[in-house]
Amino acid sequence: MLLFGFVFGQSPKEYIFKFNVRKWNKEFIDLQKQSHEKAATINLFDIYGKPVLFNLQQRSFSEVEVPNVKIFKGKSADDAKLITLTILSKTMSGAFLENGIQYFIEPLKGSCNKYKVYTKPEIDKEIEVGQINDYVK
After folding, report:
1. Phi and psi torsions of 23, nearest 5°
2. With left for phi above 0 and alpha for psi between -120 and 50, is residue 49 left, alpha or beta?
3. SS3 string of 95-130?
4. How far is the C-alpha of 105 from the C-alpha of 100, rounded, in Å?
5. What 3-state class would DSSP assign to 67?
């Protein structure tokens, strides 16, 4: 039983949820036209399926506006989580930080309007990442 808890305690945790980015984008554009604000809210989920309301501020990553690309930074309504989101016309991705743990949000492959939030990325152990044996001469 202890081994069972250890094995499953080490596995990545994730939650899959539905989110319509096109609908959210339309609502955000309508809000911008009415108030000229770059602030927004978005309802997402944590890895346990608990809803989390985030207050967002639109940020620019370029001097020239790129069509259909929106970058947001913000925090949860309870001030416990910091988030960065990239929202395109049909999809979104991002990450949020809570108590030193990073959670990732990305589209679920092969599904429409489905996303997953998870704690540990799946990495192929045969692939080395980072600057392995990168010596400055």
Report:
1. -65, -45
2. left
3. EEEECCEEEEEEECCCCCCEEEEECCCCCCCCCCCC
4. 16
5. coil
Q: Report the relative pairing of strands 70-76 and 82-87 from DSSP bridges.
A: antiparallel
Q: How far is CA 89 from the centre of its chain?
A: 15
Residue 128's pLDDT is what? 57
Cβ atoms of 17 and 117 closer than 8 Å: yes
Find out whether 55 and 41 touch, Cβ atoms under 8 Å: yes
Q: What is the mean pLDDT of each run of 10 residues along the chain (137 residues)?
A: 43 86 92 84 95 93 79 95 94 94 93 91 59 53
Distance CA 5, CA 97 (A): 26
Q: How many angstroms separate the CA atoms of 22 and 105, rounded?
A: 17
CA 56 to chain CA centroid, Å, is 12
Prediction pTM value: 0.75
Indicate the SS3 state at residue 27. Answer: helix
3-state DSSP helix/strand/coil percent for the chain, to nearest 5?
A: 15, 40, 45
End-to-end CA distance of the chain: 53
